[in-house]
Write a structure and sequence with these properties.
Number of helices: 11
Mean pLDDT: 76
Number of domains: 1
Helix content: 25-40%
Radius of gyration: 24 Å
Strand order of the largest sheet: 1-5-12-13-14
Strand content: 15-25%
């Protein structure tokens, strides 16, 4: 392992990506914990995830700038989120086996990155993406901030395996492994970003909690395709709901233990049917692919925004943006427009599909001040 000990620890982050994507390694999720990725009227055979938003400038910019915001785990509204109790216990042989799996994955990903970079360097990149490629690879190859501690552990443990460290004893190896995994978990909390999506567009609670008491809107993204541009470093996983907050890193193995750190929440949150896009390249705004945005759902109390000048201006911006966007799209790819409304006689929401933006304007005109 000595030859690869200098492997950049940024490859650990990319190894996370492959681990999240490899569903066969994660084991089956309970059916009750899977998000309800619902279809929409007029768009049969597709599954969607939904971004609920209050009507404000930042929400409108999701459409105008075509970007979704990824939050740092420490800023999420649940203090238990991404804060499982990680246990690194077990026989030394089990710990070493986990280390080997993690280390080998880092090496494999690093080799893959080197091949991709060589192709970029030798001119195989698409010219229109040249600037993005340059910035991407520069950050991948040069940004080692916060990762030196992992490199130190890799080198120290490599020396230990090769008998170069005095006192090559099980106790030393166990302490080193615990320290390594603690640092790996800490790195994830500092460097990862999370974009949460809902699974049911008719959830009364989701509209109440995340769309300003039903006065906002929800954006529907096609979950059957990759949503984020330049997908490297982005994983999409359903949230697993459980009351068990502990994860034994050694027992769970690679990558299950690390997946659970970012996708397990308390059972009280099950109503959200959440799935997550996890960025291993940090929080912040990230571009999504234009045509994965398939629809917008207007909340059942959205018309209240027409009661004052400031919010009415935001409504006009949203309508103008939808009109412009659909004028530029072909007929089969236009953003579909829906109204959420109360069902008669039951505590439930239903969705009504509007023909076009003109129909939305006509609907709003009923509530405009005289």
């Amino acid at each position: 392992m000595s030859e690869d000990a200098s492997t950049s620890a940024d490859s650990i982050e990319t190894a996370f990506e492959d681990a999240f994507k490899n569903k066969s390694l994660s084991g089956p999720l309970q059916t009750a914990n899977k998000p309800t990725q619902s279809g929409l009227p007029g768009l049969p055979g597709k599954k969607f995830v939904f971004k609920y938003r209050k009507l404000n400038q930042r929400a409108i910019e999701i459409i105008s700038k075509r970007q979704l915001h990824f939050s740092n785990p420490s800023s999420l509204n649940d203090p238990f989120d991404c804060d499982l109790e990680s246990i690194v216990e077990g026989p030394v042989e089990q710990l070493e086996s986990l280390w080997e799996a993690c280390f080998n994955e880092v090496i494999r990903v690093r080799q893959k990155e080197r091949l991709m970079y060589t192709r970029y360097r030798d001119g195989f990149s698409d010219p229109k993406d040249e600037r993005d490629d340059h910035n991407f690879w520069r950050s991948r190859l040069d940004d080692h901030h916060g990762r030196d501690v992992l490199l130190q552990f890799i080198e120290e443990y490599d020396s230990l395996l090769n008998g170069e460290t005095a006192g090559n004893d099980p106790h030393h190896r166990r302490l080193l492994l615990k320290e390594f995994y603690a640092s790996l978990i800490r790195l994830g909390k500092e460097k990862f970003g999370i974009c949460s999506m809902g699974g049911d567009p008719t959830s009364i609670l989701m509209w109440s909690h995340y769309a300003d008491n039903h006065t906002g809107f929800a954006l529907a993204f096609d979950a059957s395709h990759r949503i984020i541009e330049r997908q490297t470093g982005i994983s999409h996983r359903p949230v697993d709901y459980s009351q068990d907050r502990k994860v034994n890193v050694a027992k769970e193995g690679w990558p299950n233990s690390f997946i659970k750190l970012y996708t397990r929440k308390a059972k009280e949150w099950r109503y959200e049917g959440e799935s997550r896009y996890v960025s291993h390249n940090g929080p912040g705004p990230k571009k999504y692919k234009r045509y994965t945005l398939k629809g917008i759902i207007i909340g059942c109390r959205f018309s209240e925004n027409l009661n004052n000048d400031a919010s009415r201006e935001l409504v006009n911006q949203l309508v103008a943006l939808l009109e412009k966007e659909n004028q530029e799209r072909l007929s089969g790819s236009k953003i579909q427009i829906y109204l959420a409304h109360k069902k008669e006689g039951v505590f439930a929401l239903d969705l009504k599909r509007l023909h076009d933006v003109a129909a939305l304007k006509k609907y709003f005109s009923r509530y405009a001040p005289k």
